[in-house]
Amino acid sequence: MKREIVITGDGSSTIHLPEWDEHYHSKHGAIQEAYHVFIKHGLHHFCDSKTFKNHYNISILEIGFGTGLNAFITFLEAEKLQLHIDYFGVEGYPVLMEEISQLNYSKELKSQIYQTTFNKIHEFSWDKMHELTPNFQLTKQHKMFHEINDSDTHDIIYFDAFGARVQPELWTEAIFKIMYKALKINGVLVTYAAKGSVRRAMQSVGFMVEKLPGPPGKREMLRGTKQS
After folding, report:
1. Ordered DSSP codes for 126-147
2. DSSP-assigned states of every residue in the chain
3. Which CATH number is 30-225's, of 3.40.1000.10, 3.40.50.150, 3.40.50.2000, 3.20.20.480?
4. Which whole-number Å values give the CA distances from 220 to 35, 47, 61, in the listed order?
5. What digits encode the pLDDT tens for the residues 159-216?
């Protein structure tokens, strides 16, 4: 499927799939969306919770590793907040290095000193744990989402799959059951999606679901918490 690099509303780049008219990140702002959905309402929310006080490492599972933007921003936050992160990114169709080289994230994030780090995120081999820094471990897993078999493993899930309009099979009870199983008690799943069918699928497998204000261009988003 053809992929092209485009600039989003906040000046940051993303990948567009013309055949589906689908973007890897919000066309209103890739970086804005990542910070709002996954950092503010995912990572920061977890760090503010009572659960975090008993943690040394935070385990994050990203569903849809894609361009590596969410992983890179999480790395920058970990550096700033001195967090210990074990990051797992699942991707069925890895982005090519020639596409990665056209993305402007380190420039737009004013983090050019970490351009080499961003490159390493993509140069690391798949299905093996790598140490990005002593405080940030990265494991990229080349597999489909339904193949995930983790149990009580992760504190946070970034659910960043393509939208239900083009891939409805990724937003079903079956998939969210896998996500629920993968989380530890009091773990959270955050996603940019807010459709009623998605919320109901999450609730049906046991998530306590909150509607939250969405990023630019979206009225709402969802966060689910595993309570038992």
Report:
1. TTSEEEEETTEEEEEEES-GGG
2. ---EEEE-TTS-EEEEETTTTEESS-TT-HHHHIIIIIIIIIIIHHHTSTGGGG-SEEEEEEE--TTSHHHHHHHHHHHHHT-EEEEEEEESSPPPHHHHTT--HHHHTT-GGGHHHHHHHHHSPTTSEEEEETTEEEEEEES-GGG----S-EEEEEE-PPPTTT-GGGGSHHHHHHHHHHEEEEEEEEES---HHHHHHHHHTT-EEEEEE-STT-SEEEEEE---
3. 3.40.50.150
4. 15, 22, 22
5. 999 999 999 999 999 999 999 999 999 999 999 999 999 999 999 999 999 999 999 9
* Residue pLDDT, tens place only, 14-56: 999 999 999 999 999 999 999 999 999 999 999 998 777 766 7
Strands 13-17 and 136-142: unpaired
User: How many Cα atoms are found within 13 Å in the side-chain-facing hemisphere of 171?
Assistant: 21
Q: Please report, to the nearest 10 degrees, the dihedral formed by the alpha carbons of residues 223, 224, 227, 228 taken in order.
A: -160
